Predict the structure of cyclic-guanylate-specific phosphodiesterase.
Amino acid sequence: FLPLAIILSLLCMLLAVNWLKHRLSWRDELRKGIRNGEFLVHYQPVWQVEERRCAGVEALLRWQRHDGRQVRPDMFIAAAEAEGMIIPLTRHLLNIIADEAQTWSVAPGFHLGVNVAAEHIQHPDFLADIRQFAARLREKQMIITLELTERSLIHEGPEVANKLATLRREGIRVAIDDFGTGHCSLSYLQNFQLDYLKIDRGFINAIESLEGETPVLDAIISLSHKLALEVLGEGVETPLQFEYLKNHGVNYIQGYLYARPLNSAALMAWLTKKGS
Ligand code: C2E
Ligand code: CA
Ligand code: CA
Ligand code: CA
């Protein structure tokens, strides 16, 4: 048995070393990517149903590596969260957005949505980070919305709620993102002051596949109305989905049907062409 035990423990060590190397490499790669300017921001337009115009955009991070490879956002965001890199990455993102948005010509009240991680909110510098970002854009009079996933809020207590309430008093808005995909407890809806609820694409898809039988989607929409939250449907790809959401009182639509995420220059060209 002895040789087998030795072989097994060697194998374990090898796996551990490999795992460590992998871990270190994600963190190093993310750091290097930030230093080398490999991160870009795309902006996806959002349609305001009642006013029949573009309400604003959501900023979405892209990693275009210098070796030509694109890394999927859900992959590198998860890695950044796991490796303690989400805060530096988000700060980097806010800097890029502030730089780019300086050059935009948009009407006052243009919405700008930014995704933030719960870990960042807990950080002592969170309020300062967001205030500094907002200050850089003050001249543009945009409405800045922090998008938080349901998953990230569910375990958070009064500290996070207080910080968000403070920012809301300063004009920042808060959206609950990917609604319906997190946990089954809805109690946090009462503990946090929110402005918007973004319905996850999965429920929007159901409009087609379930042929008019979408009780969960309908319940989410009426829940947001009862909570006096404005509601957005994300991942809208077909006219049928669009009409359904419109007829059920959804306030905003986001998805490929209206527009894909665009880089800063393409966004300005797109807005000009749309004449808004
Ligand atoms: P999300 O916040 O739910 O962002 C919406 C995602 O849906 C984006 O994917 C967008 O490109 C995609 N999308 C929009 N319209 C359609 C559509 O009509 N059909 C389909 N199939 N997809 C559509 P993306 O850019 O790949 O981002 C994936 C996720 O990564 C985001 O989901 C968000 O959770 C995360 N993420 C992206 N950028 C950031 C960031 O800057 N910070 C943080 N913390 N997370 C980010
Ligand atoms: Ca989002
Ligand atoms: Ca979302
Ligand atoms: Ca989503």
Q: What stands out?
A: The chain has twelve helices and nine strands.
